[in-house]
Amino acid sequence: MKFTTKLIFIILLVATSCSKKLDLPPENILIESQVLANASSSEALLASAYFKTYVAVRNYYYMSADLSTGNAMALTTNGFVTLWNGNLIATSGLIQTLWNNHYSAINEANVIINLVPNASFSQSIKTQLVAEAKFVRALNYFFLVRDFGSGALTGNLSGPGVPLQLLHYSNYDPSKNIPRSTSQEVYTQILKDLNEAADNLTDLVTATPQVFRGRAQKTTCYALASRVALYMRDYSKAVSYSAQALTNKSQYILASSPALIFPVTTATSNIPFNAEFIFAFPTSYNSDLADNNLTGYYAKTALWPDPAFLATFSPNDIRNSASMMVVGNPTGPVTRVTPSKFANPLGRDHLPIIRVSEIYLNRAEALVKSTNTINTEAIGLLNSIRQRSFPTGLKPLPFTLASFATVTDLLNAILRERRWELAFEGHDKFDKIRNGIAPNVALTNQSKWVYPIPRREIDLTNGLITQNPGY
Question: According to the per-residue pLDDT averaged within each range, which of 14-23, 289-298, 299-308 is highest?
């Protein structure tokens, strides 16, 4: 399934009754019954839901988490600085667009989940479409509750999360407006969707890379669930889900070197997926030259790795070597570098969402926190990530039980490794917040650790949707 606009129908999900003369469908508009009339058009709707998820995350997801913590930096005149200092406002276009894009993807997923079961094509296809739609819905709700849910990252799961809309939009009716569900309720629904999706999906035995790693598989669901459980602070569940996510060792493989995952390339399309990707948006397969993702990193004019952060890497760490921190666009400032994760010549590459290395680190952290011990398996997982990050002959000594005097020492080592391993992939801000650490010195007010609810959503519901404290 390619995620290009060419595959996406312009869909009006509104069913209306009209007079005889006006009872004609507008040109280029498809109503639900037409969209779901056959498997191919239903799959196109699923492609649209995936694509809208990609649109929602392709910039802010990667910029906000690293700019907020000092992994990356931007010009003080750049609007992205508000992600660093917490000065976002409820009327921000960035916030409204983010909210709209996620709920638009959720709505299309809801159409599939609620209506495809009644369609007349193959049951096996219907089962797969519904399962994938549940993954898409879960992924979007995870991003929403993480960004907007008051207490969702700080352990107060009784706080207001986001409106949990499980029905598709049919027509505007103010009586159908719903308030924010608690963060606990949203997380519970996310895990329910992921469990049900996993029950009805398999890991495809044969599939082209962009299909296999760009669409939900059984392992994809368990991998995301391990992150969700970690954010919920349900560490026993995180241990269980991570074990399930690591079961398939033939198709999801920890690479022997980070440089193999994100190779510098002169190719502009069909860039191969490394087997370490569990889920990513396969942008290079689109061959859409106008869709230059994350050119801010590549061009080095809006965003680039902070030299102070790069200095924290150990000497000889491949992740901060010339093979992974490259010049990027030669027309940009030559003294700055760009991560090879986004070093396609046109600024485009596969946008990583979940990798095997994250699941190793999810499991390591959850094992330590669930047992409150200097856990041997956790140390082994940490060593797997740490050791592969150095060239042969220059590897540091592996960690042992004697390397850590306290549980806190081991947890700190795991979190440091997460910061290095997952840098520029949209994790660091949230890893800090869920561990009670302020993202940066200018963002110590916990009410600013979440985004404001868009003012328009509050106005449209006459206050039924409430604002986060501090905004």
Answer: 299-308
The CB-based long-range contact list for 271-276 (8 Å cut-off, 24+ gap) reads 271/344, 271/349, 271/350, 272/209, 273/209, 273/210, 273/212, 273/213, 273/350, 275/251, 276/252, 276/355, 276/356, 276/357
3 state DSSP class of 268: coil
Rounded Cα–Cα distance for residues 67 and 439 (Å): 9
Give the range among 137-141, 242-246, 259-263, 270-274 with minimum mean pLDDT: 270-274
Outline where DSSP puts E strands in 29-81: 72-73
Q: How many Å apart are CA 12 and CA 34, to the nearest integer?
A: 11
CA nearest to 137, candidates 159, 167, 116: 167
The continuous run of DSSP H or E covering 30 comes out as: none
Better-predicted residue by pLDDT, 36 or 34: 36
Indicate the pairing of strand 325-326 with strand 338-339. antiparallel
Q: Indicate the burial class of 467 (C-beta count within 10 angstroms; 0-12, 13-18, 19 or more).
A: middle
CA dihedral 245→135→274→268, nearest 10 degrees, is -170
Cα–Cα distance, 132 to 48 (Å, whole number): 12
What is the length of the chain?
471
How far apart CA 309 and CA 127 sit, in angstroms, is 46
